[in-house]
Amino acid sequence: MDAGDLSVFAAVAGAGGINRAAQTLNTVQSNVTQRIRQLERELGVPLFHRHSRGVTLTPAGARLLPYAQRIGHLLGEARRAATDGAEPAGRLAIGSLETTAARRLPPILSAYAAAHPKVDIVLETGTTAELVAKVADRRLEGAFVAGPLDHPDLDSEPIVEEELVFLTAPGAPKLDASLRAAAHGEAEMKILVLRTGCSYRQRLERFLAAHGVKEPRRLEFGTVDGIVGCVGAGIGVTLMPRAIVEAPLRQRRLAAHRLPPREARVTTLFARRRDGFVSTALQRFLECARRSG
């Protein structure tokens, strides 16, 4: 059993078929079939069920797959470590909360790109839960997420502390009055949120539950801009870092209601794998991010 066989096995498992894996690996079907059969003979167990639609993993194959993926990731990191130089270069894949990408990242990325033009930055946005999963699975080298973070495979460091504010349309009742009315069933509260896994959504739901608002109506949006526009139009309320909405607050398109100090603070962290290789490109990026904080 060698790394090449395991790489082909992982490709077939991911593609769900020999033909599709061959296309991914830029080889012919017979080569892929031969490598899989060789691996099955060596292990003495079938790794795939063959059927007309492709292949599915046997129980033995399902047990082997995480190891094959881990070895593939380690070999990739070993190659990067051996070729990494003093000057940052190559691909840097990082993730970010949409709010951080909109407000905090532009000056960081601008300074970084000017200082290190040989680095190709790939930025993915998502919720904290999505980004943590991608960093843990080694699909991202690191990501800006909302704290606190407790994950056995990840390290994190604080980058910036944000003030969360409760946002409503201008002229809406004060926060205490709105909470009392919703808790007593005198008024309906609609919350405008990003999809499940968003840490600000979780904080908002916990905050409302603590004040007796157990089942607010949830309207899910794909973007922060969409939420801000609809809150300003009086469709519902939300929770967001003040820095993200400075412009609409100045223009009186939104109203911000302060939260108790203990509930108003959230730290944006940069998370990365504890055992992951830190490239020169990532080191320099973190230095830019720390200076910006």
Please tell me how large the radius of gyration is: 24 Å
The share of residues in helices is 40-55%
Number of domains: 3
- Within CATH, the superfamily of the largest domain carries the name Periplasmic binding protein-like II
What is the gist of this entry?
The chain is an alpha/beta fold and 293 residues long. It is 47% helix and 23% strand.
What does the model show?
The chain is globular and about 70 Å long. The chain has helices at 3-15, 18-25, 29-43, 59-83, 98-103, 105-115, 128-136, 175-183, 199-210, 224-232, 246-250, 261-264, 280-292; strands at 48-51, 54-57, 90-96, 119-125, 142-146, 154-168, 190-193, 217-220, 238-241, 255-258, 265-273. It contains 13 helices and 11 strands. Strands 3, 4, 5, 6, 9, 10 and 11 form a 7-stranded mixed sheet that branches. A two-stranded antiparallel ribbon has the order 1-2. The longest helix has 25 residues, at 59-83. Helix 2 (18-25) crosses helix 3. The protein is α/β, with parallel strands linked by helices and 293 residues long. The mean pLDDT is 91.
Keywords:
alpha/beta; Arc Repressor Mutant, subunit A; D-Maltodextrin-Binding Protein, domain 2; two-stranded antiparallel sheet; 13 helices; 47% helix
